User: Fold these one by one.
Assistant:
Number 1:
Amino acid sequence: MAVRLRTPLSGEEVLKLKAGDVVHLSGEIVTARDSAHRKILSLPPEELPFNPRGAVIYHCGPVVKKTPGGWEVVSAGPTTSARMNRYLNGILSLGIRGIIGKGGMNPEPFKGQAVYFAFTGGAGSLAAESIKRVKAVHWLDELGIPEALWVLEVEDFSVVVAIDAHGSSLYR
Amino acid sequence: MLVDALVDAIRLAVTRIPEDTVEALQRAYKTEESEIARFNLQNILKAIEIGRKRSIPVCQDTGTLTFFVRVGVESPFLKELEGAIIEAVRKATLEVPLRPNSVDPLTGRNSGDNTGDGVPVIHWELTEGNEIEVAVFPKGGGSENCSALAMLTPGEGWEGLKHFVVERVRTCGGKPCPPVIIGVGVGGGADYSLKLAKRALLGKVGERNIDKRIARIEEELLEEINSLGIGPMGMGGKTTALDVKIEVVHRHPASFPIGLVVQCWANRRAFLRISPDGRVDVWQ
């Protein structure tokens, strides 16, 4: 099945999704890798620079180019999500409903509340075509380009539900 | 001029996936029957096309800039080569652009230009003559994280090697961005076997070791890996690896060191040759 969804995602929308569904995702997604996860979990939720309720996190460290008006994303595929397994319970407890990455994660913590979307690893030039603009960047000086929190606006970013909220996973 | 040629080679490596690899991925797309395997392979082929057309990095992880350099000791460019490589890395980071991927191991601070202590990584080899050959190998982190070393006993030998390689690929699943290319180095000690494994990845996909005995082991391993069912991105399918490449040197009688380096489908590489008159040829 293929569906179009817009962020923020509701619990109801997430529970309807099944492993194998294709989702054309639009709205805001926020990149976070290892360092950003540690920083997110070290702060009280009200001090986060984005609203985690219903948010979608993208495991990605983009190639970016500085432009006169801000930043342009050049290439932005997913990074290996398994590195973030250690932060998964904490991250989902903030109300995050979706994680986009590659390679899969522990399915258990997603049950009843969130889904894991897969995009093709390495296909950064293709992913960048769905990224319409950089809305904001946080913690850039402290964490550097790959680890910073990039708030991206995407349009019809086609991802696959690889782990659903009912315990099903596409990973072998 | 040398710097610009090196920048060109880095750009070529990260924006254009070599033809042998693209052909192997196209064959895989035709072979796969599952919808999800075809979805991933189609995205891969699209991304390659976009990278080539727009001259942008196919994968956002433009890697640790790694260079295998073979220097003729009579080359007039020997003295300036190291400086030129470092400058080219800085310039390519801005111009291509590349993702800055060099961080301090203690503070995590990003140097911002892909240089740092020991980075870019340059493997030097001295040889006779007056030419220089440079292999540019931007190596992604996700696949590198699946690399491993096994110090087997000689009794475990080649059967043990097969078991080690297949089990490692199985454990890594979708993490190294399959379809992968597997580099295996045998002999020479722990450090050298890993270096051989990485260097083995510079060869073309489908190119067999000239020693027929080793070529047969490469083929057997490829078949066994592809029967695991891990598939593109670990979501099931027939294509887990595009190739297995083995390089061998002599070993200590008591040791059977095996280096294993995993390369993702975004098999980035480029080569350049510097002639003594300053002419530079760049190719993949």
Note: Residues 2-12+58-140+268-283 of chain B form one domain.
Number 2:
Amino acid sequence: MSHLRLYTGIFAALAAFATAQVFVEQAGGLPYWTAFWVIIALSLVKAVLVAWYFQHLKWEPRSVSATIFTGLLAAIALTAAAAYSIL
Amino acid sequence: MTDETSDPRTDGGERVRESRRGAKRTDGGTAAAGHETDHHHGLPAPSSIKRWLVTTNHKDVGILYTVTALFFLVFGGVLALLMRVQLWTPGATILEPLQYNQAVSAHGLIMIFWFLSPFAFGFANYVVPLQIGAKDLAFPRLNALSYWLYLFSGILFGVSFFQGGTFAGGWTMYAPLNLPVYTPNIGASTAVLALLLFVVSVTVSSVNFLTTMHRMRAEGLTLRRMPLFTWTILLTTWMMLFAFAALLAALMILSADRLIGTQYFAATGHAGSLLWAHLFWFFGHPEVYIVFFPALGVMAECFQTFTGKRIVGRKWFIAAMVLVALQSFLVWMHHMFLTSINLEIKTLFMATTIGISLPFDLMVFALVYTMLKGRVRFTTPFLFSFGALVLFILGGITGVFLGAVVLDYEFRGTYWVVAHFHYVMVGGITALVGGLYYWYPKMTGKMYDKFLGKLHFAMYFVGFNLLYFPMFVAWETPRRDFVYPEIYTTWHQLSTVGAFLLGASFLVMFYNLWVSLSTGEDASDNPWQFSTTTEWAIPSPPPLENFPGKPSFSSGSLEFLPDGSDAGDIEPAGPGGREPAATDGGEATTDGGEAATDGSETDADDGEDDDDGKLVTDGGRVMTDGGQPMTDDEQVVADDGTAGAADANAGVADEKATDGGTVTVYDEHAADDEEHGEDHASIWPFRIGLTSFLFLVGLSGLRQGSFPEGLEGGAYLGLTVVAGVGLLWALVGMGREEFHGLEGPFGESWPFTGINNTKLGVWIFLASDVVLFGAFVGSYAFIRVAEGWQNNWHHLIPADHVVLPGLINTYLLLTSSFTVVLALVACEKRSKWGLIGSLATTLVLGIAFLINKAMEWQHLFHVHSEAFPNGWNIGTNVASSTFYLTTGLHALHVIAGLVITLYLIARAWNGAYLDDDQPVELFGLYWHFVDIVWLFLFPLFYIL
């Protein structure tokens, strides 16, 4: 039951963060790139919450997290280096 | 199944009939261990064609890979000879210009994709499970599926020649040459789709091998002790998992550009062509090592076996390979020095490229020192391995030139590059050919003709250097062109002569291997005096389920235990056993039997099994890490002729005699044959391969989102629909089939202990999917940066493209993720209706997500504004293309998830999952991943 409460709380947080992302953009009070990083950070937090609790990564061997993280790192390396190469 | 259709061996060798307990005698040590009938797994005899259509056994699949790869070697080789004939004189036109371009492109694609890696994976399939002490791969049907997808992808590529001509833009498929405006043939699209299907095969294979090698090693076989060939395959498959995912993204985008009219690679400015180069080479450079590492593994095995010496600096050798595998993802832009990327990034990648040569230096020195410290036996496998080392050194040194920006400005696009990468790539092939000779006796139970083997090497090595070395001299010849300065004519003619000599050498090989198959000497279980890995401890060819018991290395040496026991249960047997085998390059000594006891004194100085059969089948020992020769006390004998661990179940032991002595083999299936025999046959992988092939043939007719008018278009459309339905039928059929694979617990599983094979397989697949979606998102980011991230980009998007549909879909997906969590909770509570209700809610939410998306798309298709008078369609501009394709790929994942949900609901209705909730959990892993992807697509495509 405690897990169910935890899952419910996380679901509520995810919905709230999604709303917050739109709010950050619509409110218009922040410079573009500040808002950009806030919105991306919120996405990252949401992704980690889903992976950690809904996908049970928290309870799996750390090597599984490392495998996924390696894939993520490869994708970020490709994106960042490719984008930088034409700046 | 009757005895008429069953055979205990996977291939070759003499068939032996006997009762379960009967003694059997063969002439050459080719007897199968136990388990003479295979009636419970439905596998026909090797002489039956059906056997090869349904088999899922790793050894059969290994043979299929090997034979098919050799076919593609001939295919690609003939194309190469055509090119060399064309190059006899400058500007000759034996082939029309476009035909020459097709030959060049197809040669490269076939050799790299359909020959080289699959050839290595023939050995990997056959040998890796044996080396790690596994009965099969973790997912045998997926292994068969990998093969059939590979074969049919190759056939699909062949079909492309008959659809107006195949792809003619070079094996690198650079943009914009890869677009229909430059390569308009349907065959060019088919070639792209063929490569795409091949990549799917590779991905399935990577997941399978990684799960197997990490989870299913025998007791005591730690990663540190793992044989070097298996080490190279492990690193290769890790690289494959991530590198091919990037290529998959590139090919999916290219297919979309060609078939439905997206605008990625047609993007104006430099974005399109540079994007392809980034995606392709992010895959392409690791691919060099993906191709070369297995060859390195063969070299390491052969150097150890034929010098009788453990490889010098073994742990540093492994560390160097790990370093190369990591670095391989950080050097790709050295293939782009002549593009418009900035100087800072060129300099950085020049440094990483030069840096990657350092670990290779270490590996080369390790091999050289191993040779110097050991006593070389010049067998055919060693000759090829040594030849490969020489060629690779030359290929490596000439490659360093290309890693330097300034030199690359001069060499790029010339025959220097052609010569360099052939010395590397075909250098790798050289080692793999050595691997073919090395494992041929194990795979067939027959020994090849040694003289012809050495003749092959002599012709090969001379032909190779005659073919490729003149290219260094004539380096100013433009690459991919048959017009060149006349001053180089002589060099090119030498090359052509070399090409034919190289080709002829393979005729010698084919003749040798073919004739030896039927008339060759029987090979003993271990024809090599100092071989040290596990595959040499079992019969040649091995029995269907490989081992006479459960392999274990816990005691520091190989032993075969009765199933269900562990190492502590069995006392080691005394000396006098028969198989020398260690898990990696041990400094083996032989022992017992008729074998000589020291390599320098043996009757087979070349290390090969002597014809009189005196050597090798007996004696020797089994080691785990090969660090030191074992003492007799340490040796544990599996199938000792008199007594031993395997005799623990004496009542079910078979006795068989070989030339090398009597061997007793524990029959692991005798006691409980029917209870837990694994299946080895399924027709569904073949059907999926066939229907995938037909589906893609149909799809190749698409152009700009529609099929051509008339009979031809109707045929393509009809084939697409029929084959698409057939593919779905085959996928469901495979999902519904009862198939008993291998079940744990297995031995060593670090670093993935505490997670079962299936779940690990799903996670590894998801890691690959991370790179796939990452490459899509990266492509979007790259194009947006190129176009101008903020202002210019927003001008490409209509005002009607608003946040709300995306936000609604975010809520829907997040909620559906939560309901999947609730489904799992319901399983734990054994609540059938809770489970069905949660899954049904997930289904409804997923459908709502798709409906919302369809409505949004429909609206955007029909917007009317000054900037977008004809709507905002998939091909309107690069912004619309990235939006529709990326979110569309995500929607396809949602649809696939909903199909699985329907299946789960149907089964839950019948009471499933209350006792075993793993299928629901695995579905959850996938569904949450789809959710996570959307969490990034939403801000990128709707907010920012």
Note: The beta strands of chain B are 24-25, 550-552, 559-561, 581-582, 622-623, 653-658, 661-666.
